[in-house]
Amino acid sequence: MTTQPVHPEGEALIPRPDRTFPALRAALARVAPSRLPEMTTERDTVFTMATRTNSFGPIAMYQLKWATIIEVERFPDIARRLHAAEDAAQSLDHGDAAWRTAMDEIRAIMDAARARVTGG
Length: 120
Hints:
Number of domains: 2
Number of helices: 5
Oligomer: single chain
Distance between the termini: 45 Å
Largest sheet: none
């Protein structure tokens, strides 16, 4: 018989990764493996854009985006809140006050995660 590992509420599943592609990919594989194809497809697009524009800007934004996503997913309770808000935002009418509440929750979670990643 196998049991699920017990994870203390509020603690990170994994340490915060460096913002390098290999570290981000390895972290995502641990916290949200179903999103790896999305990350890889986006990476190909971003690297092509960076090459065409001769700019590292798209790569830096890609790294920040995925570091922020991973920051949320490192904390199961926060990730559950985000996914519930995303589900609500997709299923509710935009005129519904609950839709605005869900959007505010998404923004607050993502802003807090981005601030933790950037040290801001």
